[in-house]
Each structure stands twice: as structure tokens, then as C-alpha cells.
């Protein structure tokens, strides 16, 4: 979002309030423009002290390139321990779908915490069922859904891979160059956005990568008759990979990001998913969509795959689904979710706190988030279009919403 700062002598207008208490898009812009403050150089003295302590006791496996030490979050802003305020464009890496500390999410978590925090996945509780019912109501396919709940997007992807192999009785998979699906062994075998994430780790066998349909930076030569680069990629999969490298009747699933994230935030061409769905149907292959980054309303629809008109067989989601409370979900068609009791599981799956947070989050996204994503996407697209006319170096832009 583009923010034009006001001169100090001008007072920012108060944000317009909607019926659910959320500021309107333009009100949020005005609010954000008025309030960010830098009191001390970053990192300030309190931040430096905590960074030194962190280095002594916390694993440095996490890549944390910016020395931001957070003390508080409210709405779209963060305050660090030295009093500096920031507009949080990262949103917890696409997690804070309702902003920081949304009152309704906080209230839902507090209410559930006062009842019970955890009972393990060996037993039943209503928030778990309520969330599964809610997800079934927004599923991206016609057939009823079955949900498997876990704690992260990576775990949701792992569950999808395991289910695909169990259901199909096949062992191989197709992934995409530039994809990011997580860092545990199975998901890491599909993650090919950067070599540093894979160096030194043995990969799961049976995974073949092909180019993602990035029409701006194509790596495959278009063939006569290709409607667009989506056609080119699917034809390559069928005519080269399936013909010469991996027999299609050994492929359990194709794992693909509906919009590729870490690989460049690439919106695929219009032909890609319809052609891929046809290919999967022809060979009995499951289409598995990783919607960890793109799902739960971020593109103006519940799921990014819905922009293509294609129905997947399995969807993995996480991040924004619970406003920051750890939760991952694998949604599968009922006819695909055929594994028996104890075929898969975890200790914290369907955690009541996470379910309560997710239910509140989904309500908020439905009430205002879907339209807000659509409107903001249209605004950004128009501004980028204007910028491209003035700046020839801007070669490509894409907004899914």
C-alpha cells in the first residue's frame, strides 16, 4: 500500500469505523501515516541488550536480518522495546490477518483459556468440531471436506503428502522450482526456492521438480499451439517428464502453490491450473494446493485457487487462519481422506485455543477481510499500472486480488 505522509502541521483524519470496529482501508492508511515514530536508532539500547542475551541462548538457525525487538503490537503497527513504532507490512509473514491483538480474537482466546487449554487429540471438544464445520463451509471443492489439524503449514503439507501416498498407493510426486513448502524432511524435499535451505540434508526420494509457470522469466521454450506459458509448463510435464523420466501411474500427487510465494510471488497464467487439473484427472493424480501463504482470504477469495475455477483434491493452510496462534490444517475431499484411525496424528492437533482464535479470525475475514483484500488489490494494481507508464524499468507486476 502506498502511503503519502502528511506535513507535520496537518492533522491526520480519524479513521472511518465500520460496523465491526475495523478501520476502513483509507482510514487505516491515514492512521498509519500519522503514527509511526522513530525515537531512537535501531537497535536502541534495550534492544541491543536483548539481542546480546538472545545470541547466548537461542539457536541462530533462524534468519533474522533486522534487529527489531517487539514490545507490543496493535492493528497494523508494532512498537519496539525502545519506543519506536513501525507499520508492519510483513504481518508476521502473512500471519496477522486481523492485525495485531484484534479485540475479538483476544476475547475468543481468553474465553477458551478460562475453560480449558488442552485435552490432547485423543479426545473430543466442540471448538475442534466447530472449526472443522466452518472450514467445510468454505472448502474449495464441491465434495464435503475432512480436516486434519496440526500446528503449522509445514505439518499440513507433510500430512497432505502422507495422505496422498496412502490413498493412491503410489510413491512419486511432482514439485516446482522456486517452491517453498517447509523445512522438515518431507516438505523440504519440495522446497527449492534457495539452496541454503536444503544444503546438508538428505531429501525424500521420489520428488521431481519442474519450472513454475513464470511467464515473465520463462525457462522453457514455447511450442506451437501453446496458449500461454501455463500450457508450455504442463506440456513439458506430460511430454518430457511423464514420457521419459517418471511414469504418471506412479505419481501420487502434484504439490503446487496456488500463487508461488518465496519463489517470487508469481501469479500463474490463466491456462495453467485448468490444464494441470485435466492432466491429474487423466492419470489419477491428486492435485495438492499449498495455500499456506495465499489462503484464508488474502486474494479476495477464501482460496487463491478459486480464481482459476479449478477444484483441488487437498489443500494445506496455516499462517493467517488463526491470527498468530499456531494452527495448520489439511483439507481433503472426503473421498480422498480414506485413511483409518491412528494412520496419522499429533499431540496438539485441534488445540482448543487455536480453534477459538481461528473461528474468530474466519468471522472477521468474512465480514470485512475478503472485500478489503479485493479493494486493496485493485488499488495497488492501478498504482502499479501508473508507475509502469512512468518507469520503464518496472517490467512486471501482479496482484491476485
Description of the structure:
- This protein has 401 residues and is of the alpha/beta class.
- The chain has a domain at 105-363: Type I PLP-dependent aspartate aminotransferase-like (Major domain) (Aspartate Aminotransferase, domain 2, 3-Layer(aba) Sandwich), CATH 3.40.640.10.
- It is 35% helix and 13% strand.
- The chain has 10 helices and 10 strands.
- It has helices at residues 25-34, 45-57, 91-94, 103-115, 126-137, 153-168, 185-188, 229-244, 272-283, 352-390, and strands at 70-74, 77-80, 85-87, 145-150, 172-177, 207-211, 251-257, 286-290, 314-317, 328-333.
- The strands form 2 sheets. A 7-stranded mixed beta sheet has the order 4-10-9-8-7-5-6, sandwiched between helices.
- Strand 7 (251-257), helix 9 and strand 8 form a beta-alpha-beta unit.
- Helix 5 (126-137) packs parallel to helix 10.
- The longest helix is centred in the C-terminal third of the chain and has 39 residues, at 352-390.
- Mean pLDDT is 90; it is low at 1-26.
Amino acid at each position: 500500500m502506498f502511503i503519502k505522509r502528511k506535513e507535520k502541521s496537518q492533522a491526520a483524519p480519524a479513521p472511518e469505523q465500520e460496523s465491526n470496529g475495523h478501520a476502513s482501508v483509507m482510514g487505516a492508511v491515514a492512521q498509519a501515516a500519522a503514527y509511526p515514530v522513530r525515537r531512537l536508532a535501531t537497535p536502541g539500547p534495550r534492544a541491543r541488550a536483548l539481542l546480546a542475551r538472545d545470541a547466548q541462548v537461542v539457536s541462530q538457525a533462524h534468519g533474522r536480518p533486522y534487529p527489531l525487538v517487539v514490545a507490543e503490537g496493535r492493528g497494523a503497527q508494532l512498537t519496539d522495546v525502545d519506543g519506536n513504532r513501525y507499520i508492519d507490512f510483513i504481518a508476521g509473514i502473512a500471519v496477522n490477518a486481523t492485525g495485531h491483538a484484534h479485540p475479538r480474537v483476544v476475547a475468543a482466546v481468553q474465553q477458551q483459556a478460562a475453560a480449558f487449554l488442552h485435552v490432547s487429540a485423543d479426545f473430543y471438544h466442540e471448538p475442534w468440531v466447530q472449526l472443522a464445520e466452518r472450514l467445510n463451509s468454505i472448502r474449495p471443492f464441491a465434495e464435503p471436506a475432512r480436516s486434519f489439524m496440526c500446528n503449522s503449514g509445514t505439518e499440513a503439507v507433510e500430512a497432505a503428502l502422507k495422505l496422498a501416498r496412502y490413498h493412491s498407493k503410489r510413491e512419486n510426486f511432482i514439485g516446482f522450482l522456486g517452491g517453498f513448502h517447509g523445512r522438515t524432511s518431507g516438505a523440504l524435499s519440495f522446497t527449492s526456492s534457495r539452496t541454503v535451505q536444503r544444503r546438508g540434508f538428505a531429501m525424500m526420494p521420489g520428488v521431481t521438480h519442474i519450472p513454475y509457470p513464470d511467464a515473465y522469466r520463462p525457462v522453457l521454450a514455447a511450442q506451437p499451439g501453446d496458449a500461454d506459458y501455463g500450457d508450455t509448463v504442463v506440456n513439458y510435464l506430460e511430454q518430457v517428464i511423464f514420457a521419459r523420466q517418471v511414469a504418471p501411474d506412479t505419481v501420487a500427487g502434484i504439490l503446487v502453490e496456488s500463487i508461488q510465494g518465496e519463489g517470487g510471488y508469481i501469479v500463474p497464467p490463466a491456462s495453467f491450473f485448468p490444464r494441470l487439473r485435466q492432466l491429474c484427472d487423466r492419470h489419477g493424480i491428486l492435485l495438492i494446493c499449498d495455500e499456506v501463504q495465499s489462503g484464508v482470504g488474502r486474494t479476495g477469495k477464501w482460496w487463491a485457487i478459486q480464481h482459476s475455477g479449478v477444484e483441488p483434491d487437498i489443500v494445506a493452510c496455516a499462517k493467517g487462519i488463526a491470527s498468530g496462534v499456531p494452527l495448520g490444517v489439511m483439507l481433503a475431499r472426503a473421498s480422498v481422506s480414506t485413511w483409518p484411525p491412528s494412520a496419522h496424528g499429533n499431540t496438539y492437533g485441534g488445540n482448543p485455543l487455536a480453534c477459538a482464535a481461528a473461528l474468530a479470525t474466519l468471522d472477521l475475514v468474512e465480514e470485512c477481510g475478503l472485500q478489503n483484500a479485493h479493494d486493496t488489490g485493485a488499488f495497488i494494481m492501478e498504482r502499479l499500472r501508473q508507475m509502469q507508464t512512468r518507469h520503464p524499468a518496472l517490467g512486471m507486476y501482479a496482484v491476485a486480488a
